[in-house]
Design brief:
- By secondary structure, the protein is mostly helical.
- It is about 85% helix and about 0% strand.
- It contains three helices and no strands.
């Protein structure tokens, strides 16, 4: 699967969030602020995972349907990936 520009940009923003958290720590910001920013980064990572899994699932489903293959296993695998990522 080829990862598109949207997904890469999403991950670059997350990288910026993490760097921002490190900067907050170096500045001695309070625990509540640091944890809040880490939580925002975690939520962004969860959304990125969902986008990657759904994009991959769509791609795989299209390929399988074009070949006339059963798609049940693909859907199960995608759900398992999402569950494991939690």
């Amino acid at each position: 699967m080829e990862y598109n520009k949207e997904i890469k940009n999403r991950l670059k923003r997350i990288e910026g969030q993490i760097k921002g958290v490190l900067g907050m720590m170096e500045q001695g910001k309070d625990c509540k602020s640091v944890v809040s920013q880490l939580s925002a980064a975690r939520n962004a990572i969860d959304r990125a995972i969902a986008v990657i899994v759904s994009t991959n699932l769509e791609h795989c489903l299209r390929e399988s349907m074009e070949k006339g293959e059963n798609t049940d296993d693909l859907v199960k695998e995608a759900v398992e990936l999402l569950v494991k990522s939690r």
